[in-house]
Structures are given as structure tokens and as C-alpha cells.
Amino acid sequence: MDNDGTLDEAYERLHRTGPEFEGWLSNHGPMAVESMVRRGHGRRVHRWLDVYTRRLDDLPRGTSPVTADDWRTALGDPRRLGDWLAFFAREVTERPWRTVLETWWPRLLPGIAAGATHGVIRTGHAVHALLDHEDGPRLAELGQALGYWAARWQPVPLATPSGTADATSALAGVPRVPDQSAGINHRLDQLTALTDWPAVLAALRPATDAEQARDRLADLTTAAVLRYLTTAHGSAVMLVHSATAPMAVLRTLPALPRTQWAGSFDAAWSASAAVTAAYTPAAPAPRHSLPPAPESAEEAFTLAVHHGDEHVIKLADTSLEIHRRTGEGDALAAVVRAAELIDEL
């Protein structure tokens, strides 16, 4: 994937910065550069970082070490961000990274909404890079990702799917939260008040074994990407995560014990449904108003890189995977849609 060290150089630059900036915005740099390098655009990474890193804050310092005795009380406390980053920096250097992931994945998964799902998304990109090649900067990136997830750990209501609906139908059945104002935390807090929310989550067809979990997760990611094309005007930025979060989980599965795959699918579905409920518009965009698909996947990703927005790049990375799997032109058209709408922000 990366024969000239570009990704490791990018990680080293980014690890001098924090996982958040301007108070709470997520640092998308590690996710975007991993996608760009893997998709053959490594030559543009450092120029992209020259611009992007101007927005970022310094790496936060810890105040009190997280320990094996108090980690539960520190979970989800953003004031302990520096402590969590230091904790996982030690974990990934002192223990095999797969062991760290196997231990912490089930602990963190109930809080999959962390950082508007960026905790799990950054983790998925880090695991994807490590599965290709293991070295110091990539191990450090996994530590940063897990530390960010732990500090921003935020649960959403979970339920095990038990219905008959496919992913497309299940997402179509997700209701909107009543108050579509304010930020994601305010919107997600409304889910517990939706009396039919457990039934909404249960409607999806379950996964009864590891292979089904993997396949259902791929179907969910596909449905979310295709749905983005017609609903992105609800929030062109936030609805990206209804697709990129389950894709991150899907990419992490090969590094996890198969016994954790079904639970991973369940959590990814809950996260994707929650983001959908929080930002879906009142009505889909008319089909005639939507952009055509680029002629090729390569053209779609090049468009995203030239556009430069980190959300467009992340969506393009996921959309290309869906296009490779299904041949759906709408997966590539979703990239154009994201670029157009984000230009208007």
C-alpha cells in the first residue's frame, strides 16, 4: 500500500497534534491520509497536510494516569483525553496490538458514538494500515485512535437485530428525532425518548454467525452510501458517518476474534441508525436533481482529493469500496453529491 513511507511520515506529523481542535472538532488528518495513500494519491499527502494542520491543536497533556483500577471511571471523560492517549501509547508498545484491540474493542464498542463516531472510524483506518504493515508510527496511530475513542466514549441505545428487514428497508424505517436543531449530542439524547426506537433497531435481519455478520455489515454500509445520495442535504457532513462508521467496523473485523464479529455488527447498525435519525431530512432529494456518477472509481476519488475536504475524501474511500463490491454507479455519484453540498456550506 505504501512503499515510500509517506503514510508513516504523515502519521509522525499528525501525532504532534491532538485528536480534536477548536474545542471538540475531530482531527480527520489520520483518516484522510490513510485513504489517500491506499488509493494511490500519496504524492499529494504532504501538501494536503500543509494546509490541514494549520487548523489543529497541540497534543494534549495528561493530568492523572489511567490505571487498570480506575479506567471505568475515566471512560467517556474528555477531560482525561491526554491521560487516555498516554495510556494507549503504553499499551500498544508493551503488548501485541491485536491483544490490545481484542481486549478493548468490546469495552469501547457500547460507546461507538464517541466523537460523532470518529473514535471508531479512526480506529478502523489505523487497523487497516496495521494489517498492511506493522511499524512504530502505525502502532502509535492505533494508540491515538483508541485513546480518543475512550475519552469521548458515548453510548447510543443498543438492541440486537431480530427482524426480517434488509439494510435498505431498515434504514428507510428509521424515524427522525423531533428536534433537528443544535449538535449531535442534543440529537442523540432524543433517541431514548423515541418509544419505538428498540423496535426500529430490532427490525433489521440478524447475523447468526461470523460470516453473516461480515456480510450484513457490508450490506449496511452499502445501504448507507446509496441513501446518502438522496438524503445528504439533511447534513452533508454528518450523514457521511452513517456509512463510514460501519465501514470502519467492517475493516476492523479481520483483526478481531470471530466471536466479536456479531456484536460488532449490532453496534455498527445502532450507530448508523442513530446518525440517520439525527440528520435525515424530511424528504429525499428528487432524482432529477442529483448528479450523475463519474465515469470511473478512480475519477471519483481524484475528484475528492482535488476537492480537499476531509469528509469528501473519507466518503469517497468508502464509496469506492461499495462500488467495487456492487458496481452501483450511485455509490460514485454520492461522492459528487458530497462535494457539491459541502461547497455550499
Give an account of the 3D structure.
A hairpin with a 3-residue loop joins strand 1 and strand 2. The protein is globular and about 50 Å long. Helix content is 59%, strand content 1%. Helix 13 packs antiparallel against helix 14. It has 17 helices and 2 strands. The model has no long low-confidence stretch (mean pLDDT 97). The chain has a two-stranded antiparallel sheet with strand order 1-2. The chain is mainly alpha-helical and 345 residues long. It folds into 2 domains: 146 residues, no CATH class; 190 residues, no CATH class.
How large is the radius of gyration?
19 Å
Helix content: 55-70%
Give the N-to-C terminal Cα separation: 33 Å
**Overall structural domain count:** 2
* Tally of individual helices: 17
What would the average pLDDT be, to the nearest integer?
A: 97
Q: What overall geometry do the principal axes of the alpha carbons give? A: globular
Overall structural class, as computed from helix and strand content, comes to: mainly alpha
The helix-strand sequence is: HEEHHHHHHHHHHHHHHHH
Please give the order of strands in the largest beta sheet.
Answer: 1-2
Number of strands: 2
The biggest beta sheet is recorded as: 2 strands, antiparallel
Protein name: Questin oxidase family protein
Organism: Streptomyces gibsoniae
Keywords: Oxidoreductase
Pfam family, one: Questin_oxidase
